[in-house]
Amino acid sequence: MFRVGIGFDVHRFVEGRPLKIGGVEIPFEKGLLGHSDADVLLHAISDAILGAVALGDIGKHFPDSDEKYKGANSLVLLGAVYRLLKEKGFKIINVDCVVIAQKPKLAPYIDEMRKNISVVLETSFENVSVKATTTERLGFTGREEGIAAQAVVMVQEVNSGI
Fold first, then answer.
1. Is-contact 9 40, C-beta < 8 A?
2. I need a surface site. Which of 13, 87, 99, 132 has the fewest CB within 10 A?
């Protein structure tokens, strides 16, 4: 059996925080506001995985009301989500995502993001696609108020016989 999940996340820019996307710290004058490290890409992927196996969203599993997740590394949270996927008897087939940001330019960091994600999800580098786009200066991302990310994952039941 194959299943598909989608995820979406958004965080606004703030001063005084590092910018982490896909587990990569990106040199930029602002970071993203969030209870954890606010890694918008990893949050979207986590939600997509949880959605694929009907386990809710990351807010259910890692609530911002719980101090133990304050400043949490989203690669660690993604690893916890991946363990939930495996416990349900599924594996990752592929991940496709897009980061929506006017600035900073993300192209130089995409392969490192893909590597981080593929390692945590125990899948090959070729099974992880990360793209970046702008909104042509439209909307909150175009006004450089924050960053959004969308993700789609396909998973397969491990003992499905396919």
1. yes
2. 87
- Whether domain 2-157 has CATH 3.30.1330.50: yes
Q: Is 134 assigned a ligand-binding role in the annotation?
A: yes
Task: Give the global pTM.
Answer: 0.95
Q: Tell whether 36 is in a known binding site.
A: yes
Amino acid letter, 80: A
d(CA 32, CA 11): 6
Consult the annotation and say whether 141 binds a ligand.
Answer: no
Percentage of the residues of the chain whose pLDDT score is greater than 70? 98
Q: Is residue 59 annotated as involved in ligand binding?
A: yes
Name the residue among 106, 138, 137, 145 with its Cα closest to residue 15: 145
On whether 96 is known to bind a ligand per the annotation, the reply is no
d(CA 53, CA 153): 11
Q: Is 140 left (phi over 0), alpha (psi -120 to 50) or beta?
A: alpha
Helical segments of the chain, H only:
40-52, 58-61, 74-87, 110-120, 139-142
Q: Is 65 annotated as a binding residue?
A: yes
The alpha carbon of residue 115 and the mean position of all alpha carbons in its chain are separated, in whole angstroms, by 13
Q: For the chain, give every domain's residue range.
A: 2-157
What percent of the chain lies above the pLDDT cut of 90?
90
